[in-house]
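Workshop exercise sheet. Pairs work together: one partner reads the sequence aloud, the other fills in the structure field after running the prediction. Swap roles for the next sheet.
Pair: D.N. / O.F.
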Amino acid sequence: MKKSNYIISSFLALLVWLSSCSEEYLDRQPLDQFAEDAVWNDPNLIETFVNNIYFAIPHGFHALMMSSLVDESMAVWDWETSNATKSLINPSYLGVWDENFWTGRRYQQINWTNSYRQLRNCNIFMDKIHEADFPDESFRDRLIGEVHFLRGFIYHNLLSVYGGVPLITEAFGLGEDYEQPRTNYSQVVDFVVEELDKAAELLPLQHFGDQMGRATKGAALALKARTLLYAASDLYHNPSWAQGFSNPELISHTGGDQMSRWRAAKDAAKAVIDLGQYSLHNGGGEDWENFGEVFTAKETSEDIYVRYMLQRVQEDWDIGDPGLFNGPNGYHNWGGNTPVGQLADDFEMADGSRFDWSNPQHAAEPYSNRDPRFYATFLYEGARWRQRPENLRDSDPLGIIQVGQWERYNSSTGQVNVQNGLDTRQGPIEDWNGTYTGYYLRKFIDPNVDHQYFRQEVPWRIMRYTEVLLNYAEACIELGEEAEARTYINMVRERAGMPAIADSGEALKQRYRNERRVELAYEDHRYFDVRRWMIAPEVYGNAQGVRVRYELQADNTTAENPTYTVIEVQDRSWQDRAYLLPIKLDEMNRNFQLVQNPLY
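Structure field:
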């Protein structure tokens, strides 16, 4: 970490007119920075300093989404994501996780280097704020609450990808000892919970107007619930995967009781529920539309902590444009993070039964009578979407997704020709983009926006109420409180238009996990879920898709209904070291007190 005590930051530029080069200018402050005293005696500059720390909290609308590092999607351009899905990341090669990687800041924002850079800003704030000239105490308290929240969030992210990390709560000065050992996993969890409790005491229940998007009491409590849920999970109570790692206290609890931790996770989730501030969104439309609105509306009753997107704010090319990044290439979009077949297959039938390709009826009509959330999450062969761009409307005036291939008999030559759909990689439009899996993402994408030219203003939901309900249900299952768990799972299913479940025992746990997979798809939960549940060896099999073919019949006419064939589209593999990220070799060489994570 870089240490400095004199200059605070370069986050604001000063526009200064220079009229001479006389000697008096030698005493002026730097023109592109504020001196320390200027910042900490101006409430507006202090708030701007805090605003800068908010950039440590990532949002998911990047060209590379976290879904493509797990069994939700594949990045069609790869961009080195396959090295992550094959467990090839190592201390000398972090790939998409490296702060110097050319895109994919969703990952880089939570890596070691960037996290500690922002933690230093948090520590500077905590060191200076009580000396600052701040006439409005409520304003001061709110900012203190926000920084407690932000510091807790950053350490939560570090815990989730590294395990125990150095717990640093002061900004080092020049000449101090910068080498610090890793702190035990349990101690960092306790610190995060303490930070979030402090934040919850100081933060308001709501913000309004241009203050929306800041941390609230509910956000602090929801993050506490998430942290405790993770900490109660099997990965952090079973270090056997580390094969005799000599410092198990860095990657797991080494004392205490797992059931008491599940109880703490349950209580934390219930505290959010008991606020009475949030509810499941119900827009009054069809079930699939109602679910889809959660992700395309500017504001919903589920929103706990969101990142807002504005067209007028010009961010980098690879940020904040999910429609362009993930929409079908037949609409001049990129089809980037395309859903894999395993995710689509895990959406149940409308009656609550499992979808199964070995069932002839399912295989013949795989997109009929599915969980309503299926239709709000995916675009697939035959799905009705938005109107095609003007130059393509003659080819498809209705806006029907075409990922299939049509076999056509040419009577003149006696040969069979293949016509590729508009949304295939072999089609006539942008054939350097497009799906390998036969699916596109619909979730998050506003169909009223022409994503070829415009960015949408749909916020990224970092925390929403449904997650809290599911967190509560999971803790109840682990505590054996099955009736309570079913009540909350069925609340989520009812909103989606799905029948209630009545499972118990192991079947209930598996049903819950699938419910979470479906409901929270692409929302940056699955990567962590498969690790904390220790099911990663099972789910990192080769990615699958579906080939859609309208075959030529015996009478040389093309079949009206397609044949679907499950195919493998990307090789993947798992090594247990990938439960946690490695600490970068450069960081290990700077700090000899660090212990590397297991199996690297």
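Discussion prompt: Residues 43-270 form a domain with the Serine Threonine Protein Phosphatase 5, Tetratricopeptide repeat fold (CATH 1.25.40.390). What would you look at next?
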